[in-house]
Amino acid sequence: xxxxxxxxxxxxxxxxxxxxxxxxxxxxxxxxxxxxxxxxxxxxxxxxxxxxxxxxxxxxxxxxxxxxxxxxxxxxxxxxxxxxxxxxxxxxxxxxxxxxxxxxxxxxxxxxxxxxxxxxxxxxxxxxxxxxxxxxxxxxxxxxxxxxxxxxxxxxxxxxxxxxxxxxxxxxxxxxxxxxxxxxxxxxxxxxxxxxxxxxxxxxxxxxxxxxxxxxxxxxxxxxxxxxxxxxxxxxxxxxxxxxxxxxxxxxxxxxxxxxxxxxxxxxxxxxxxxxxxxxxxxxxxxxxxxxxxxxxxxxxxxxxxxxxxxxxxxxxxxxxxxxxxxxxxxxxxxxxxxxxxxxxxxxxxxxxxxxxxxxxxxxxxxxxxxxxxxxxxxxxxxxxxxxxxxxxxxxxxxxxxxxxxxxxxxxxxxxxxxxxxxxxxxxxxxxxxxxxxxxxxxxxxxxxxxxxxxxxxxxxxxxxx
Length: 466
Description:
Layout: H1 9-14, H2 24-39, H3 48-59, H4 64-76, H5 86-100, H6 106-119, H7 123-136, H8 141-154, H9 157-167, H10 181-191, H11 195-208, H12 213-225, H13 229-238, H14 240-243, H15 247-264, H16 267-285, H17 288-303, H18 311-319, H19 329-341, H20 345-360, H21 366-386, H22 390-397, H23 411-427, H24 431-447, H25 452-465
Helix pairs in contact: 2-3, 2-4, 4-5, 4-6, 4-8, 5-6, 6-7, 7-8, 8-9, 9-10, 10-11, 10-12, 11-12, 12-13, 12-15, 13-15, 15-16, 15-17, 16-17, 17-18, 17-19, 17-23, 18-19, 19-20, 19-21, 20-21, 21-22, 22-23, 23-24, 24-25
Protein name: Tetratricopeptide repeat protein 38
Organism: Dicentrarchus labrax
InterPro entries: TPR-like_helical_dom_sf, TTC38
């Protein structure tokens, strides 16, 4: 593999982001890992993330920022908990020990501190530290990306937008990776409902870097939130060649493509994407993003009345080993969809009880702090719905409507829970709930006019209650 084109010690110094190592190779590998993270892509010519992470440890085993980026990326993937995974916990401790035994820069010290907070599940403290770095070093894209991910897990939509807005003027077109900031900014804009501006900024990003999968992803969201289904289908298909090379995000972009088909009621096309892309990829990668997408897609199809056959059981093989992780509530709720869909009641119970236990003494872990008030009742609502206790599901979910944002993810991803509430209200025997269901559909129609899915649900509500 060749890292010739990446930045060495001198190049990082020249950018005002010096790295505490004397190894040029370690600096270049750090840049190579960072570049793949920003592009959402395993670059096979470099040996992908794994190859570069092994190589950086060999180039300089004591390079603190090498440990920060490799351990930080594993933590940000949320596929493993330091509570249960001793190897990951000790990788965090090793990074802290190395930092304490060396004379590193204040910026690098802050990076270590942020990673440590994140490893304890304290995502907002971690974000505060990354923001401190960005005040003095607005071109530190590792701090920017890590903060962006943490805000995503917190459902911190304004912060996701403003974090990028604050640093944009400091980035000049000649700087490596500068074009990718457009996609990051666009995502923050669309999650705060500035859809037209989000689309414009993402398109500017794609004009600079046509293969920027995160900009593609932002546009996919805009068309999803505005229910501009045909535009979305045309856009995803027209650019598929460009974005599918970003293997880390490709499955998620295919998921967005499938959502348009579900919206249109073209379930066979959606299932084809599920089988050929989403499930196949999540089975190969075990990535949490790919996995939760698979969970959510089956759940949405089932609510639409589609029989997903034995797909729940196959997906359970991937989600079941994560039952006790409890890294994020968002992940937990998606795993629960699968154990309920696969009628694996022991696993469902175990997940709920584990969460209830952690909610008692959450410590610094924000997800566990939120579990008692939001996570547990949402899990219970899903279980009630699954057992046909629709009125109980409504009573649990409805009061949480405006707090669900706190479980993280995007508006598009959390919409599965809005749909669940509508279905529960429509199916409830309680007349007040049935009216509530119609109210929620009217509200949905105001936000996303011309949505075929909303129209179908309206028809169903009328047929059920007349």
